What we know:
Elements: H1 3-12, E1 27-28, E2 39-44, H2 51-58, H3 61-65, E3 70-75, H4 79-88, E4 93-96, H5 98-106, E5 112-120, E6 122-126, E7 142-144, H6 151-162, E8 175-177, H7 182-190, E9 196-200, H8 203-211, E10 214-217, E11 229-235, H9 237-242, H10 244-263, H11 265-280, H12 286-293, E12 296-298, H13 304-316, H14 333-340
Parallel strand pairs: 2-3, 2-4, 7-8, 7-9
Antiparallel strand pairs: 1-3, 4-11, 5-11, 5-12, 6-9, 6-10
Amino acid sequence: MKKWxxxxxxxxxxxxxACGTEEEETSSGTDSTExxxxxxxxxxxxxxxxxxxxxxxxKGYFEDEMENQDLEFMNFPNGNxxxxxxxxxxxDLGYVGPGPAINYYLTGGDVVVIGSAANGATLIxxxxxxxxxxxxxFAGSSFCTPGNGCTHNVQLEIMLxxxxxxxxxxxxxxxxxxxxxxASMVAMFEQGQxxxxxxxxxxxxxxxxxxxxxxxxxxxxxxxxxxxxxxxMVTSTEFLEENPEVVEQALQAHKKSVEFAQNNEAETxxxxxxxxxxxxxxxxxxxxxxxxxxxxxxxxxxxxxALQAWADASYELEFMDEDPNLDGFVDTSMxxxxxxxx
Length: 342
């Protein structure tokens, strides 16, 4: 078991949740410059639920559909860096978790969701000897999440609130440690530094399979579990309006990538793991990836109402100062048209 810790810490620099961590370095699959002329920069995370992005890149779907464009791919360690790159024009479109995109939009940022790439991928787990086997057992305990107010954090805290528990951030009896990157959760569990985690995949499954963690709440039983996107495809309204043909080509590639991932599990997992290895010289256990794959859904379907419900929950939990209005945040009309042409 412990032999994985060193490798996982290395992997964490690249393989992170949609929430993100405090890592600041952004790495690029190729040398990227600010988009100009026929150059299009696409951002993604080298993570399991970003399989559509990784398949599209590695299998050449984006190159095939966008053959007249000079494509550059950039991988990001967290959502904050991704959003900053979109804001400054370093990237033109890409894949990110809904939390950073929603927060950016609500602060006046130019971002629009044009499709979904995955749903689910959140697992609530506890340390083997923590005594936590249900949400009610969280009283007086501690838990960690990749980010303060991130997707997974909101999902767990809103469930705790429903049974009368609050985090210490709100004067409650449950200690919350935020900004814990997923690989660090492994060491914290082993050393008894934390009792539980709202973990993104494949890290939740890794804790269960390799470190005997208890599954407290399965991915499809967490708040909005089966409907909330863990990865959305986004661009700016400015880029969409100025380059509709390019965005349509990217969505055509996205459609092909999702279909491949849905129909070729083994090859998709191998493709993702190979990319992780190329970036970090570390591979995740195949059994972990296979089981984590069952705790998410790769899909093009975007549930706008689930995104609004998540934002409402975030406001209720006082992560947001104003009641969120996501009108205009989602526009999947172009993707819907592509799907109708099947």
